[in-house]
Specification:
Layout: E1 4-6, E2 22-25, H1 36-43, E3 49-52, H2 54-57, E4 75-78, H3 110-120, E5 126-128, H4 155-172, E6 177-179, H5 194-205
Parallel strand pairs: 1-2, 2-3, 3-4, 5-6
């Protein structure tokens, strides 16, 4: 299968031999450890990837990026969506309402951009994993304890934004989207059991 991963997924690599077919990072969290984003890129240096072009030469809106990391191999550089990147899902007047392919909309979440790119790469279906939405105990929202240094209590606003992003994807995607996350609060897409899907693939291959 073609797999996609994003952001600090490399923190999990010590537990698995799996690596994604494609990698994406289009967001920058200034509350994360300094230069964390460079570790993300170095962990996927040879992986085909899509990155925000601000990581290449810096961005005046994000002084912490400095002069950027320069050129990176196997990279397609993506601009931020100028139309509405900074409007949250709670802004019911100016928030986005649809994808606008072939241009990639980076509004609301990098996950939305990743789904659009998967569609452009001719995916026949999208199966999401790790899309929990947030719970009140912010420490439980991430796959490893040191994933982020940002523990602001913002679960309600983030859940509104992420839910709206998924609703846009459901309306806009030309292929079906399924949620294989174990538990979590995301109920926009039909639920599937990833282990059953993997089991069927293995049985078919054998």
């Amino acid at each position: 299968e073609t797999t996609w991963a994003m952001n600090r997924v490399h923190l999990w690599y010590e537990h698995t031999d799996w690596r994604p077919s494609y990698y994406l990072m289009v967001d920058f969290n200034q509350q994360n450890p300094h230069d964390y984003w460079k570790d993300c890129l170095r962990a996927h240096w040879d992986t085909p990837k899509y990155l925000w072009d601000g990581f290449r030469f810096g961005d005046k809106g994000y002084p912490a990026l400095g002069e950027g990391i320069g050129e990176v191999p196997n990279t397609t550089w993506l601009p931020r969506c100028k139309a509405h990147h900074y409007y949250s899902g709670a802004n019911t007047i100016r928030r986005p309402q649809s994808w606008h392919l072939p241009d990639i909309c980076t509004a609301l979440s990098g996950l939305g951009a990743m789904m659009q790119l998967a569609v452009l790469e001719r995916a026949t279906e999208l199966i999401l994993l790790g899309c929990d939405l947030y719970v009140p105990d912010y420490h439980e929202n991430f796959m490893v304890p040191n994933y982020t240094d940002d523990f602001r209590q913002r679960d309600e606003l983030d859940n509104i934004t992420m839910t709206h992003m998924h609703e846009i994807a459901r309306r806009s995607s030309p292929v079906p989207i399924y949620n294989a996350t174990i538990g979590g609060a995301l109920e926009v897409h039909p639920r599937v059991d990833l282990l059953q899907i993997i089991g069927k693939e293995v049985e078919h291959a054998s």
